Structures are given as C-alpha cells and as structure tokens.
Amino acid sequence: MAKYEFLIDDEPIESNAEKQGEGFRVTVGEKAFDLLPSGPGLYSTMIGGVRKTIGAVANKDTVYVDIDSVLFELKEPTEDEFGGGAGDAGGAKDKVFAPMPGKIVKYLVEVGQTVEVKQQVVIVEAMKMENPVLVRAAGTVKAINFAVGDQVDTETPLLELDVPEEG
Question: Is residue 100 part of a domain?
C-alpha cells in the first residue's frame, strides 16, 4: 500500500492507494473510493452515487488529475515540504523510494554517478503511467537495488546515495 499526504488549504490530508485486482482502492481522509480502469490512464469511480471519470497525467514536476472535468494540479513539494512517503526511513535523504508499487522501466543513473537535488534517477511504471523518481539530496549513487523489469514496493529503497554531511 502506498501512503501519501496532501496539503489542502494548509491542512494535511492523508491518503492511501492499494492495488485491488485490476483497479485500486484509494482512501482520502476517511472516505474510500474504488477506481476501475476504463482506458489508458483513465479510471472510473462512484462519488455520491454518481459515476465519475478520473484521468491523470504527469508533466515535469506536476501531476494533473481530472475528476469529471474538474482539474487538480498536484505539484512536487519543495525541499522544505518533503514529508516522506511509505518506507521513507523517517525522511532519510540517502535512500530513494518508489512513490507507489510498480515496475522499474529505466535507470537514468549508474553507481558512482553524482546527482543533484530533484534529479530524475529512475522511471517506475504504475497504473500504466511512467513516473519519474527524483532524489532528495545531492550526492553519489552508492547502490542500485533492483534491475530493470523488477516489481518494486514503497518499502525498499530503489537506490542509495552517499550524501555529504551537512556542516
């Protein structure tokens, strides 16, 4: 299960996403929604007894979510706003985790390579979408823990960094 935290009007809202068959069960606050695939990148759910269509697309640092023609923009938090997701080892900056369970599509770095804050380092496919994964700290890639094609969760780091001590 992948866990997320959103800020809506400066109030933290917790959410979870869990794979169920071909779809997902998404819990936002205390409400649960079953999302069923209805096409590439499209899902449907029932909200208030009415069927709604949901689409999502990522572009640079923003994910656009369209729920029945209402558009939401979800932006990557700044370095100060990073709250850490599931399996994030308390916000450890030397480990990089998948944002949700998926499959490794491509690594954009190799062991020994230097990386900068917010650099894309791996692409994870989830919900038929390719999601870039970014590093939270500058450093050097110390270890890559999975191979391309491997299924990953949110609890085990995809890669590890040597991060210089802050002084």
Answer: yes
